[in-house]
Structures are given as structure tokens and as C-alpha cells.
Amino acid sequence: MLAALAVAMLVAATSGGVAKDLVEPGPSLRYQRPSGPLLVTLPSGDVLAIGGNLRFGHYTEAERLSLGGRHWKSAGTVPSKDVGWLADAALLRDGRVLVIDVRGGSSLYDPARNLWRAGPPLTTVKGWAALAALADGTALASGGCCVDGKENALDVAEVYDPKLDRWTAVQPMHIGSVGHRLLALPDGRALAVGGVMSKVQHPAFVGGADVFDPRCGCWKAIGRSLPHNGNAITSVLMDGRVLFAGGQNAWNEPSTAAAILDPKTDTVTPAQPLPLKCIGHTAALLPDARVLVVCMDLLARPNILTFQPDRGTWEVLGSPRRDLFGATLAALPDGRALLVGGSGSKGTAAGVAIIDPRRGDRAK
User: Fold this and answer.
1) What are the E-state strand segments in 128-232?
2) Are strands 337-343 and 325-331 parallel, antiparallel or unpaired?
3) Is 55 domain-assigned?
4) What whole-number distance in Å separates Cα of residue 217 and Cα of residue 258?
5) Ranges in the chain, pLDDT < 50
6) From 27, 105, 125, 174, which residue has the greatest number of CB atoms within 10 Å?
7) How far apart are CA 294 and CA 350, in angstroms?
8) How many of the other CB atoms lie within 10 Å of CB of 336?
9) Whole-angstrom Cα distance, residue 364 to residue 357?
10) Alpha carbon distance 203, 230 (integer Å)
11) Domains held by the chain: number
């Protein structure tokens, strides 16, 4: 009840105006997930919610919402106990979901049977790594940090083979990185971008990107002219190019710089800067090829933005008056997006909201 009221407040209170019905309350979660839930859209259109941080630990219960459903249903218990902030999940080609936790363990979820099982532990990749499913059916994990009490970011990488149920070490990245994104590209490769190298307590952001080719098990450094910003908005576009925008610069100040990287030609093209300085963002690629972004401005107000790739432009759709730190977006097949988790400045869980960017378009 409180979660539904919190989301209703997000819809009702506006700053600068929110298009009618752009944001609607969504079905209440079985378990409130204030920060960092992992969301995976399944082939059926269902959304799987995994993990998320509590004040003193992580959720191990998973839940599932069917497309158009009114209630979240139990999706069992994740075998790993460490699926909190900086864990990662990916949808494998065989339809299962692979999760890596913050201590180097893995778990597998079978949507058809609604069952979890423990997966094999990673051998070199440990905590805070990134994960991506590859087109050949395998999955890639890379980077991370904080092994044996050390703060150094790791350059290690491993590939999971679901047929063998085994992780195998591959060539390391060119630079160690933690907090980066691993993005699966349409050509079968994966792109590692963003993140922090060197000491985690004294961060230096990784410049450029590393692209992994599963055919040779090797990496290639590209995108050297990308902005040297960490925690940036990143998304693979429909045509295989990659959006890179915002984040923090070397002085830990929010940046509005934006660019598009073409991994095939290794070219970086400047894009229109963000219309505001974003922090605490979450993003999702919509079926109409736009990128939907929800982020906080410097006054801690959430903003809903879209990026139009064919025009290279941004548009602000609305600015609801509610803190929403730590929320996660998932695109739905019908063009809407699910916003799950997050919390206000007083720690109040924000619950679930459904964003329909098409309604924002019609309200212009």
C-alpha cells in the first residue's frame, strides 16, 4: 500500500509538467527493493526482478511480473546470497538467466520451470564484475576488484559455456576496470566501456573502450576519443552503434558530454549534449529505437529523457518531484518501460512505476 502511494505521489507531483499518464503506478513488489535490483526481460515478455540491497544485506528472493499482469509472483530463491549492488545478470540464448554475484559465484534461472540452481564459480573474475550474454550462446564476465583485501581493479575475463557448465579464462582486458558496462553487440562481440581503474577509493576513470571477439578470445582497444567519464549512460542502439553520455569527469563533476561510438569502424561522433546534468541514472533501449533514461538532476529531482538516434537529439518528457536513487529500468515489448526500486532522501522505498514514452509524445 505504501509503495503504491509512493508511486502515485511520483505521478501526481510535477515540476515543469509531466504529460498525462506518462508515468503510472505499477504492481507492488512482493519485496521492496530500495536499491540496485537486477531486471531481466524474458523471451515471454515477463520481467524478472532479482536481488537488490537492503540496509544490512541483499535480497535473495526473486519475483516475476507477466506482461500486462497485476501481481508479481514468486520466482524462487537465488542460490547466491550476494546478489546486491554491482551483481549482474544476463539472458542466455537458451532462454535461461545467468547471474554473477559480488563474490565470484554464479546462479542459473530456468523460466520454463521457474527454478534456480547454483552455477559454477568463476575462476579468476571475482567481485563487482560485469556480465554480457554473447550471440554464440556463451556469456562473458570481466573486470571487478577487491580480491584479498586489495582495491585494484582487475583486468581478468572469463567465458561461460552453458553446454559444459564451465567458466574458462580468456585474454584479459587492456586495462583493469570495475563498475564498467559489458554490452553485447549485434555482430556477436561485446564492448566493455566506462568504469574505474586503479584504486577504488581514489578513482581514475577508464578512457575509451575494449571490444571482445569470442572467435579469437581476444580484446581490442577502441574508442580512444570517447569522453573520459565514469558512470556514463551507455546503450547499444538498434544499428549496432553505442551511445555514451553524461557520467562524472575526472573531478567527479557531472558531465553533459555525449558521443556515439561505431564499434565496426572505431569512429566516435559527437552527439547533442544532455539537456541537464544527470546523476544516478538508469537507461533502456525501447522497441521504437529510442533510448529512455531516468536520472536525477543536481537538485535530486528525477527526469525522464529520451534520445533519438536518427536525429542525435535529446528530449525531456517530464520531471516528477520525487527522489528515485537506485532504481532500475526494463523495456517492455509493448513500448513501455518498467521502473523498479529506488528510494527517496529519507530511505522510503519507491516501489514500481510504468513509463509510457508514447503518451509523452501525444501530449506535445
Assistant:
1) 130-133, 139-142, 157-161, 166-170, 181-184, 190-193, 196-197, 204-205, 209-213, 218-222
2) antiparallel
3) no
4) 30
5) 1-17, 56, 363
6) 125
7) 14
8) 20
9) 12
10) 9
11) 1
Domain-embedded: residue 331? yes
DSSP for residue 239: T
Residue 358 in grid coordinates: 508514447
Has residue 251 been placed in a domain?
no
Cell, residue 173: 582486458
Residue 322 lies inside a defined structural domain of this protein: yes
Domain region containing 318? 1-30+278-364
Kindly list the distances between the CA atom of residue 316 and the CA atoms of 18, 283, 293, 329, in Å, as whole numbers in the listed order.
Answer: 10, 14, 9, 17
For residue range 228-272, list pLDDT tens digits in order: 788 889 999 999 999 999 988 777 788 899 999 999 999 999 999
CB atoms within 10 A of CB 132: 23
CA 93, 96, 100: angle at the middle one, nearest 5?
A: 105
Place of cell 559527437: 270
Can you give the pLDDT at residue 150?
A: 65
pTM: 0.88
pLDDT tens digits along 125-156: 877 899 999 999 999 999 988 765 566 788 99
SS3 120: coil
Distance in angstroms (rounded) separating the CA atoms of residues 43 and 62: 17
Return the H-helix or E-strand segment holding 340: strand 337-343
**Contact yes or no for 87/59 (Cβ under 8 A):** no
Cα–Cα distance, 289 to 211 (Å, whole number): 23
